[in-house]
């Protein structure tokens, strides 16, 4: 253990929250080390245009925005590393984090910005055909199904956004909505309902994705009448929300019943002093790039205060 690298401020995660924390922590001379995780740039790397992030009057592509964030953090001096934090030990100070199941590093403070990941339905056929026509990212995979029939399940803003995206590429988008109404904002619903090649199936559940090696159709069921239908299609997109990436901290940090980390109101402080959380892993309400970035700023300022107090 004596050879462990020791860092002052460890940041876990590389979405808007993690990079913003890195920018602020660098400027406060905390010499932050940031591990990017399995998806450098986070969820914004699988979106198209971001129109609601202030400072980009003409909009910006999500992946480019994350490159900009990373470059800014690097320019401020953040040490940004490719790698996963695979375990943590928060039981004593300095805290310890295992990297890529290979080495441990020690940290005086930790900022958690691990974000959230797409949820799956849990159908065996969904898992079997994942990557062979089943996807949780229309923006990543829609292109492969140009001119074909596809389906999407979900009725939130993400599902509507992705259905609209797919409608521009694919011949027909079958949209499965499990209730008689959508959760999405009115403006998104209206856009979907006005798009001629999006066919909305109300009160409908996916039963099974069919196809031997790749998707060729899908069995759906109307949950009011029980009627089942097989719809021919080439791809099935799942857009039913997200799960916070907090498994690493189970049993150590306070979480709500869905696994979102609990921070003290008006701060990024978790129940362990010196461990801070920001972005989607602790936010199930706003979940925006700009609110994640704002909370990353809060976490760095909280860490700066904490580390400053340790030194005096
Ligand atoms: P949401 O949690 O808002 O919606 C999830 C949707 O999936 C709901 O319609 C839900 O149905 C449905 N669903 C969940 N589980 C199942 C299941 N097992 N079978 C079928 N359907 C299921 O997630 P989103 O990812 O859409 O959005 C997350 C947040 O991000 C929201 O706050 C949203 O407003 C925001 N957002 C904003 C955007 C924008 O402003 N442009 C774009 C994308 C997201 P039910 O309604 O019945 O529960």
Structural description of this entry:
The chain has 312 residues and is an alpha/beta fold. It has 2 domains: 5-117 and 242-311, FAD/NAD(P)-binding domain (3-Layer(bba) Sandwich), CATH 3.50.50; 120-238, FAD/NAD(P)-binding domain. Helix content is 25%, strand content 27%. It has helices at 16-27, 62-75, 124-128, 138-141, 157-167, 186-193, 289-311, and strands at residues 5-12, 33-35, 49-50, 60-61, 79-81, 85-89, 95-99, 103-112, 116-118, 134-135, 149-153, 172-176, 198-201, 204-210, 217-222, 228-232, 235-238, 242-244, 275-277. Strands 1, 2, 5, 6, 7, 8 and 19 form a 7-stranded mixed beta sheet that branches. Strands 10-17-11-12-13 form a 5-stranded parallel beta sheet, covered by helices on one side. Helix 5 (157-167) runs parallel beside helix 6. The protein is elongated and about 70 Å long. The model has no long low-confidence stretch (mean pLDDT 95).
Would you kindly provide a brief summary of this structure?
The chain is of the alpha/beta class. It is built from 7 helices and 19 strands. It has 2 domains: 5-117 and 242-311, FAD/NAD(P)-binding domain (3-Layer(bba) Sandwich); 120-238, FAD/NAD(P)-binding domain.
Q: Please tell me the overall pLDDT.
A: 95
CATH architecture of the largest domain: 3-Layer(bba) Sandwich
Biggest sheet: strands, sense, closure?
7 strands, mixed
Number of helices: 7
Structural class: alpha/beta
Explain the layout of strands and helices.
Elements: E1 5-12, H1 16-27, E2 33-35, E3 49-50, E4 60-61, H2 62-75, E5 79-81, E6 85-89, E7 95-99, E8 103-112, E9 116-118, H3 124-128, E10 134-135, H4 138-141, E11 149-153, H5 157-167, E12 172-176, H6 186-193, E13 198-201, E14 204-210, E15 217-222, E16 228-232, E17 235-238, E18 242-244, E19 275-277, H7 289-311
